[in-house]
Amino acid sequence: MSSQAGTPAQTRPDASAGTRPEVLGVTDLKQYFAVSAPWTARLARSAPIEPVKAVDGVSLSLREGETLGLVGESGCGKSTLSRTILGLYAPTAGEIRYAGTSLSGGPSRAQRRHVQMVFQDPYSSLNPRMSVGQMLTELLRYHKIVPSAETGNRCRELMDLVGLPQQALGRRPRQFSGGQRQRIGIARALALEPKVLIADEAVSALDVSVQATIINLLIDLKTELDLSMVFVSHNMAVVRQVSDRVAVMYRGRIVETGPTDAVFGAPSHPYTKLLIGSVPRMLAAPTQTAGENLADPLAAVDGEPEADDSPYSAHKVEHGEGHGCRFRPRCPVAFDRCSTEPDLLPLPGITPQCAACWHVETPDGEHA
Question: 19-114+194-280+289-361 has which CATH code?
Fold first, then answer.
């Protein structure tokens, strides 16, 4: 509905990135979860509780060889969106496409192997009863990636690929450090030779010094294997380092998307400005404050949600207070239109950078 008025001349993506075919896409994707009413409400036969709208009408596009950074606060729906794309959750509504083919009925075995995920917790995502070699061998045999006689060689190749010694194949997850476990998780995902890799907070559970090595590993693997990647994180600094494009998510919706340098250099949505302003930085002078580089009055956005601003109140978007923009209770520049009309985002590809904010249409501040 609205688009960025001006886009910086210099952007991170390769000039040919926009011409590459789409490898993964979602259109108006919704993922709702039913909430059980307490027993007192059931006895009183009160009205049923509205479902939690973890993902509510998300549209995204990922092209071959591209890295899309998906950012937002904890609880905004990033992981739910990733798991729905992966096929772990059956979507409530919407369409998921892989290489132009709709996955409405759920991905087949052949399609499932082409989209893999690196999970946030490297320990809980691995089977503690199996050695690394057993886990990789099981995957290779089930999906028939290589002949049975060559599974051992392929497992050793995967260890070399992620920078682990071949002796690691005979050990179990508890015998490794956090960074090594995440490397094993990456090796497991790459064992199926995917085209799309979803990294769901892949470095958030790791020590800062280890984070850099895992990030560099993902960047090198993406280039070496020509992977397309969805990098999910709440760390804006990391996302800026690894992403070609960025999609900002708030309470189940995408509120801004565009090239990385454009979004970070000239953010449009107040929530995006809040996230960028929250990144720690060195102060140039004692009087300078974090977020001072943001245009007033949007620099004054409150960093904490209101008491009722939780995923369990997301249904308010269709009733009363929440009929319009979901960010309105926290936005210092909200006006009447924000409470009466929903903040819709253009479909991917219409503009290089776009934001779901009525102030982008009225940059002079005139309230229609």
Answer: 3.40.50.300
